[in-house]
Amino acid sequence: MSMPSPEQLTWFLLFAPLVATVGILLFTRRRPMASAVLSIAAVSLSFVAAVKLFLVVASGSVVSIPPHVWLAAGPLIVEWGGVVDRLSVLMLLVVTGVGTAIQVYSVGYMRGDSGFPRYFALMSFFTFSMLGIVLAPNFIQMFIFWELVGVSSTLLIGFWFERPAAAAAGVKAFIVNRVGDAGMILGILMVWGYAGSFDFAVLAGKWQGLGLSPVILAAAAGLIFCGAAGKSAQVPLHVWLPDAMEGPTPVSALIHAATMVAAGVYMVCRVAWLMAASPAMMTVIAWTGGLTALMAALIAVTQTDIKRVLAYSTLSQLGYMMLAAGLGGTTEAMFHLTTHAFFKALLFLAAGSVIMALHHEQGIWRMGGLWKRMPLTFIAFLVGTLALSGIWPFSGFYSKDEILLLALEHSPGLLVIGLITAFLTAFYMGRILWVVFFGEPRDADLYGHARESSMVITLPLGLLAVLSVAGGWYSVVPHFLNPGLVTAVPSDKIMAGFLAVPLIGFLLAWRVYGKAPTDDAVLRRILGPVYRWMESKFYFDEMYGWLVVSVQGTIALVCETFDRWILRGVGVGGISGVTRGLGGVVRVIQSGDLRFYLFMAGAGVVALLFWWMRL
Amino acid sequence: MIIGLDHYLAVSAILFGLGLTCILMRRDLLLILMGLEMNLNAANLALVAFSRYGRGADGQVLTLFVIAIAAAEAAVGLAIVVALFKNRRSVNADDFRSLKG
Predict the structure, then answer these.
(1) Any idea what the Cα angle at residue A246 is, between residues A244 and A250, rounded to 5°?
(2) CA triplet A309, A456, A466: central angle to 5 degrees?
(3) Strand, coil or helix: what is A82?
């Protein structure tokens, strides 16, 4: 048997999960275990294929997949193809690797759920869509998979659709993403209108040379960035991600921490040439990222649902990535994306393990002292926390420091934001750690029933923990992405400073939460009204609510009035009324009476005769 | 009094008027058909008169056609009346209004 070519590998990798989805939906809907096996087999085979592709690309050979013309209408030519380069291979590895671990974990987490086969069908479908985004060589193909990811994400958020909150969260995610995607498709059309191509490689070559005005360049980049901001939940389109925690925890880990939300960052890196063409837009992206990072970290400090804290922390880390991308640091952004995928998936899965042990209790103020009961989960969570907070030698330290160094180089303002965020990250993670795993059990009943999860749960945790520790060592990821990279070794003073910031955060968290309090009273007292702002998530949901109700409602009322009275009343109603009235008049002579018809005919002849005579 | 074309045409017109009146006033389909025959014959009379006082035999030829077609028309018309009677047990024209708009 000959080795499959890289092209065959690519297509296999993309379509294996889709085959699993179709297989589950058609054949194994009633057999949970068969469905899980099918789905996991597909994603792990994809992972193997991704590893093979990785080796091919890492050896320096260029994999080119000739595109096929998919549809051509005049100047509009859409191609179907795949792009396998360092950027996409890395992403493929993350998606399939983390995806495999999470799907194995799901077998334990979703056990006994009546929608078990559906869950795995959707997970596979999501994997397929996500791989599609990664492999897309042009805007149209990317947009198609972009939307497929949106759909599968919505379905998974609303997986427990019998719960109104879950169904609403799914719809919210879909609608908020729609806002971003509307901008994105406009941007795509704009790029096509000016450059006449959808293909990334073609566009990258000619976009800068088109001589477009800065306004146009900024508009195109900005519109495309709208899509990224929606998917990667950047301010102000971030409101859907915390609500997305209504989905099953493994879904939160895979989609809303490790992969899908990274799609926006990935796209910004993929179309870096487009963003780089507009320095103004790059600044906007960087500051959007910074603002997201800071704001989400502030909100995370006040949340009492363990998953929501992690959700806001995800927002915050995505902000870091956008910040890096906005400063031109594609490599740094992708590095942090990769390590974040490891440790955030780990944190979510560990949180899921806790939630499961406590019978789906998610409020941190009912937990406590769990490290004795769940030592493996505790260690996993600890590793994730240290990695997320950027403690040496965990992976987050390396990737976050790269970003902070980038900020140090380019923008002092963003560096300050990054450092404050790093401090807050350590603080809220320390808070979670202390409240959940240390101190006294706050709910004796829940604590009494808590036990360590089974192998199928702890094994993926262990795997991800190893990656979270070692993912940043020797800067493997940046060097792979950018072989010519020369890592400037920063001075020890700077490194110590970057390390001190999260340590101070931990220390403070220990001071506030180390003595086993039962609520956030201390912080609430110190921060006063600021705390209320943070707790209410800076009133974004309320603001959108007001926007929808008053602004959109008013516009809708005007439109409705116009539609009802002008369009339907005068327009449609007028035409139909006139027709009906005339019909009524003319209908009178259509009596069906034979003799009357004849009389009319005769009278007509007589009238005609008279007329002729007189002429 | 010399009987000329005008007299023939006058008789023809009176005949036509009688036929039309019959069609308009009567409800019985058979009588309506009879009125129709009278109309046709009024036309025949006019045609023959035109032929007699005009030139050539065109009018007479046309009359022969009209007679032939009138026979065919009577056959078809009566057949329809019979069919209607079979279906509705009536030959009253007012009973057949279902085609009105």
Answers:
(1) 85
(2) 65
(3) coil
Q: Which of B16, B18, B20 to mutate to test the interface with A (most CBs of A within 10 A)?
A: B20
Measure Cα distances from A540 to A168, A296, A362, A446, B70 in Å.
17, 12, 23, 34, 90
CA pair distance A280, A222, nearest whole angstrom: 10
> Which amino acid appears at position A227 of this protein?
G
- The residue ranges of every structural domain in chain B are 5-93
| pLDDT score for A517 | 78
* Backbone region of residue B56 per phi and psi (left: phi > 0; alpha: psi in -120 to 50; beta: other values): left
Q: Which of B27, B96, B101 sits opposite A590 (nearest CB)?
A: B101
Q: Based on the number of CB atoms within 10 Å of its own CB, is A377 exposed (0-12), middle (13-18) or buried (19 or more)? A: buried
Which residues on chain B are in Cβ contact (under 8 Å) with A594? 32, 93, 96
User: How far apart are the C-alpha atoms of A116 and A106, rounded to whole Å?
Assistant: 9
Which long-range contacts does A158-163 make (Cβ < 8 Å, 24+ apart)?
A158/A246, A158/A247, A159/A115, A159/A118, A159/A119, A159/A122, A159/A247, A159/A248, A159/A251, A160/A115, A160/A246, A160/A247, A160/A248, A163/A246
Best residue in A582, A587, A588, A595 to probe B by mutation, most B CBs within 10 Å?
A: A595
> Which residues in chain A are contacts of B96 at CB distance < 8 A?
592, 594
Those residues whose C-beta lies under 8 Å from the C-beta of residue A329, and which sit 6 or more positions away, are A402, A403, A406
Torsional sign, CA B10, B16, B21, B26: positive
Residue A299 to residue A144: CA distance in whole angstroms: 33
Nearest to B100 among A592, A598, A602 (CB): A592
Residue of A nearest to B32 (CA): A595
Using CA coordinates, name the residue in chain B closest to A602.
Answer: B20
Reply yes or no: is the peptide bond before residue A529 cis, omega within 30 of 0.
no
Q: Which residue has the tokens 């487009």?
A: A274
Task: Answer with the residue of higher pLDDT: A419 or A442.
Answer: A419
Tell whether A440 is within 8 A of chain B (Cβ): no
Q: Is A348 helix (H, G, I), strand (E, B) or coil?
A: helix
Which tens digits make up the pLDDT trace of A592-603? 777 788 888 889
Question: Any residues with CB less than 8 A from the CB of A373 and at least 6 apart, and which?
Answer: A357, A447, A450, A451, A452
pTM, to two decimals: 0.78
Instruction: Indicate the DSSP class of residue A516.
Output: -
Spatial distance between the Cα atoms of A34 and A40, rounded to a whole number of angstroms = 10
Of A592, A593, A598, the CB nearest to B23: A598
A580/chain B closest Cα distance in angstroms: 13
Does residue A487 carry a pLDDT above 70? no
Instruction: State phi, psi for A60 to the nearest 5 degrees.
Output: 100, -5
Could you read off the pLDDT of A134-161 as tens digits, one per residue? 999 999 999 999 999 999 999 999 999 9
Query: Is A373 in contact with A447 (CB distance < 8 Å)?
Result: yes
Of B20, B96, B101, the CB nearest to A594: B96
- The better pLDDT of the pair A274, B101 is held by A274
The domain B5-93 having CATH identifier 1.10.287.3510: the answer here is yes
Question: A60-104, pLDDT tens digit by residue?
Answer: 877 878 888 988 888 888 889 888 988 999 999 999 999 999 999
The answer to whether A599 contacts chain B (CB < 8 Å) is yes
- Put simply, the answer to whether A593 touches B94 (Cβ < 8 Å) is yes
Closest CA to A90 of A289, A338, A348: A338
User: A-chain residues within 8 Å CB-CB of B20?
Assistant: 598, 602
Collect all residues of chain B within an 8 Å Cβ-Cβ radius of residue A592: 96-100
